[in-house]
Amino acid sequence: MIIGAAKGGTTDLHYQLTGLPVNNDPKRPDPPIKAHLKEARFMNWPLVSTDMLLNASMYAKYLGKLTHPCAETKGVLALRQCVSVHPPQQLTIDASPMYWYSPHTALQLRSISLDTKVILMLRHPLEGIVSLYNHRVIEDGVWKRIPLDALVDGWLDFLASHPAVPATLERLRGCPHTRCQEEGWRDLVALGLTDTLELRMFSSALYRYGLASWRRHYFRPNRVLIIDSHAYFRDRPGVMKTVVRFMYGRDMTRVEADFAAMAPAQNVKKHNGSSTAPQSSSSKKPNWMLSDEHRRLLEDWLQVHVLDELYNMLAELRDDGAWIVGFDQAPWPWALDGDAGGSSSARRGSRSSRRIALPTYDFYDGSEP
């Protein structure tokens, strides 16, 4: 399962793993990935009953959407058994980035599959917000006349007019463990923080809070790979070496290596700079460009609720057996500070004093995949 930040490279990674040259390679050591879907968006649907989990028929419908061979199996226990024994014959990928911030997806997945490998892609939150704004304007046709500054104002107005939201955010900021974070994030979702495109553009940057459910209920040693999106696009072939090792427990084939080196980036604009970004008029700054004031407001908010403890979260996940790729170069603030073992949170009074150097994408501990 591929999850993570919107505009963080999940589409490109899905393409790398399922492209025809890779899947049709006659020398491929593993079964071709014939069952895969980008944006299945099934496991994060709002539940319409008091049940915490989907029922067997809904799981079967989900597997049918993925063209999974277990889709006709009856009963949740039988589904789980079928899913657990099928990987040697057929591999399946669901690439739905938004799953990461659903309060229920980790529990839903756990009900039918205990061994699914999860690849999580994270992008610097401020860059992700600007990129997602451009994507919505150019690809989806929304916000064409609304500058990004105005959306930031709308976000701040929402926080000011819903006092329960900043109160819950402050509670989350002080959470000592993932259970507290999971409960707080569930409260924020119930308060409507992910209800609209405008709100999700900002709330989906809250990586530490939204991932708490995954950390508590699903992530397992050697079955989680966390990729720095910036490292992925700087050196796709290098990162794909680790992805293949994580997925299959082997080195890349020649076809996989060539495909990673030549394939166009699926989530990157074709031109450098701002030439493809939406413009307002020649006499005004581009709509996508944040004013200094709005950039500062957004940076301060993201620093408090995302970046101050993100480094330590990654270190904790590494200690728990996750594979970590990148996060050692700009734009991450601890890399900008030139302190490979520290983070900006130390100077801002962070509760944690841990200093653990994150491994690069050459990290592999020799365990069986």
UniProtKB/TrEMBL annotation:
Keywords: Glycoprotein, Transferase
Keyword Transferase: yes
InterPro entries: NST/OST, P-loop_NTPase, Sulfotransferase_dom
Domain Sulfotransferase: 1-259
GO terms for MF: sulfotransferase activity
One Pfam family matching this protein: Sulfotransfer_1
Superkingdom: Eukaryota
Binding, 3'-phosphoadenylyl sulfate: 123, 131
Region named Disordered: 266-287
Enzyme Commission identifier(s): 2.8.2.-
Top-rank EC class of the record's enzyme: transferase
Similarity comment: Belongs to the sulfotransferase 1 family.
PANTHER family (alphabetical): BIFUNCTIONAL HEPARAN SULFATE N-DEACETYLASE_N-SULFOTRANSFERASE, HEPARAN SULFATE SULFOTRANSFERASE
Name of the protein in question: Sulfotransferase
